[in-house]
Amino acid sequence: MKKYIIALSLATMVGFSITSCSEDFIETDFGNSVQAEQLKSIEELQAFMNGTYGSMRSTGYYGANYPMYAEIRSDEMFSRRSSGYFQSVANLSMTSVDQYATTPYNAIYAVVAKTNIILNSPNNLTWTQTQNAATISDKVDKIKAEAYTMRALAFFDLLKLYGQQYSGGTKGIVIPTKYDPKANMARASVAETQAQIESDFTNALALISGNQFNTPGNKTEINELSLKALMSRYYLYKGDYAKVRQYVAQIVAANRYSVTPKDSYVVSWTLNNASSNSIFELAVGNANAYGAGGINAFMNLNGAYRNVGVLASTYNLYTASDVRRSAETFGTASGYRFIVHKYPAISGSDNLKLVRYEEVLLNGVEAELAVNGGTQTIADTYYNLIGANRITGYTNVTGVTLAQLKTERRKELLGEGFRMWDLLRWGQSVPVYNSTGAALTATLNIGDTRLAFPIPQAETNVSGTLVTSNPGYDN
């Protein structure tokens, strides 16, 4: 694989951030000398892991683009195309040189490259904090568990965006497991990609279980519970409901998280590393605030661009007694409705909440409703935990249905980057709306080649590359 993103110098690829208690960041770069040699210390290993989280919060990945794609092409939101942003994604006019194809490709493979450096580092590292071999071993295992988890998530996200599982083909993505700028690898199949994702998750769980450095109190780094939450997400999308039930039950039984109550729902989005429902979030902080470039700028009423609006049909799903429908959650400008409460900081300093307890419960509801092995009463319990904390005068539901679950995911996870993928895994069509959100401009059915983003031309044009493009584009 002559992966152009991996061919970047380490000075570019592995600029990383060291997190302080204040969530501000100090940029540190070991440079090419560390790439040429192997990492020798826990400090270097940790710095690379911090850098991995830093790459994940880039605007090409979770900082803006990636979650917005799944909202722009969905039945809940639309792009106004304001200031030219997301125009080709919404107009279905993407090409192989499109920034919305190349930017996430770069950003996500940067995560892969950094995790590969961590995972292929030796275990016998030094640490200024101790010389105890068992303690050092546990620390190495913990960091490598984080790296396995983030690589699995990166491969999963790449598969959803560039793989052909919904577009009529069988090709997945390139799945490098070593940092090698000279490697020439072909795309794996969808099944092979899934096998690698599952292997990474399994390895992560083995390393973190019982580890003395497993710290569920810190929501900005992976721990055993946040790992299981991400595993529940992956296995839900794969349709392995038994595993979803298993991991959700374990998270619920741990009793570390709770659905945010009605009176603190809005403020919970402003609490960095402190909200009771947050399981895993990417630290941003003041020093790394996005300004006009982050998700807040595109989705929030007070953002710079107000590019991604809420469809009227989505807004009308909320009853007047629902805390999610109020002047604190939605606002209008120029006749369009926008989200107010999610990522409200104008500076873009809010942490990115990647996994919330509510998502995990909804994963559990769907898995419990599956034909084989599920329990209706457990599904009802999970479902009602959310409803009781969102709706004044809520009456518990008995016998929740899949249709109700689908609607609740639409309401609770609005703007968080799930909807297109939910529609696809349910086998449903993906609607795309015009720039006012008033008319349907296209419907993407399963098998439509446009459901896989184009592989960047800079990847497929490399001499001798084994990487093939996705059908329907210009390369």
Description:
By secondary structure, the protein is mainly alpha-helical. It contains 17 helices and ten strands. α3 packs antiparallel against α6. The chain is globular. The protein starts with 9 loop residues before the first helix and ends in a 15-residue tail after the last helix.
Tell me the strand percentage band: 5-15%
**Number of helices in the DSSP assignment:** 17
**What general form does the structure show?**
globular
Radius of gyration of CA atoms, rounded to a whole number: 22 Å
- Number of beta strands: 10
User: Structural class of the secondary structure composition?
Assistant: mainly alpha
Order of SSEs: HEEHHHEHHHHHHEHEHEEEHHHHEEH
On the 0 to 100 scale, the average pLDDT is 92
Low-confidence stretches: 1-36
| Biggest sheet overview | 2 strands, antiparallel
Strand order across the largest sheet: 1-2
**Distance N to C terminus:** 17 Å
Q: What's this model, at a glance?
A:
The protein has 17 helices and ten strands. It is mostly helical.
